[in-house]
């Protein structure tokens, strides 16, 4: 039976939009983790068979297949190809899946997976703004087929977050408490040096810029993102700049290149759900992954679920019965930030390093994605 192994995982610090990485070109940001990955593993870059990167809004400096341009910007061999994946927020988690699937299929032995997002250079509204200048409003309203199926319901992550909060009876106070805990966990992890091994400094930035000591008075004073709602900027993920990369290798690749595996990819899956609700897909996706593997929530030492919004994680916790003490133990995107196309690889990097630090065995990763989708990855530390 073929296996896919994770040999190394590295990320840049997650910088605030307009922060310390604002002046770094996206290709150079991606190049930084690729260079670090080659250096840390000691593998000959010429042996890499493909580079698969996630990225959202591939326009402007992120256009032109950023996986390929980042590899070339790193000065690495030009015979190595690259491709860029867009599964919205799960893009780089999907990149890991595609890399592992190539190895599992026996069509490749050494593949790089990762992602990059520079939300300073290409803010989340950029593509929409550019589209409007060409006469488009959004990706959905112009489709007769879409309207026939879903009507004219607003497709919005902010509306979806409010819908979840209402359905699961999540109070603003409960969501704010979760957000505070995210910041406190990141601050504690940073103070204890838990992120030190996984971070590769870039352009003088050595640490994540998003976390800050919670100010409850300020948090409670923030207006909702939608009039009459309960979700605020404090209970939402931050806009960020970052990159992350992993080396995925077959058993043959381990032998040939003298590499030591750190984890085995135990399970890969992706599932769609209602695109109007958009952010609930991790719930059925997790249930299906458990059914496929025979594992239970109690089998996981650590879980990473992206904190796109506080209600996403709180609803998932309510439905899965997962132990909150094992979930996002070093905080999440509310405090760290959410560089869209890089977040999946960033989560996997943090999950691997923390499993090693704690001596855990199984880790699960999932995240909500545009279009009402969710990837699930289960790894086993070796």
TrEMBL record:
UniProt-listed Enzyme Commission number(s): 2.3.1.9
Catalytic residues (positions): 89, 338, 368
InterPro entries found in the cross-reference section: Thiolase, Thiolase-like, Thiolase_C, Thiolase_CS, Thiolase_N
Domain Thiolase N-terminal: 5-251
Domain Thiolase C-terminal: 260-381
Parts of the chain that traverse the membrane: none
MF (Gene Ontology): acetyl-CoA C-acetyltransferase activity
Lineage: superkingdom: Bacteria
Top-level EC class: transferase
One Pfam family hit: Thiolase_C
UniProt entry keywords in alphabetical sequence: Acyltransferase, Transferase
SUPFAM superfamilies, A to Z: Thiolase-like
PANTHER family documented for this protein: ACETYL-COA C-ACYLTRANSFERASE, BLR7806 PROTEIN
Similarity-based family: Belongs to the thiolase-like superfamily. Thiolase family.
NCBIfam families xrefs: AcCoA-C-Actrans (TIGR01930), PRK07801.1 (NF005865)
Name of the protein: Acetyl-CoA C-acetyltransferase
Species this chain originates from: Trebonia kvetii
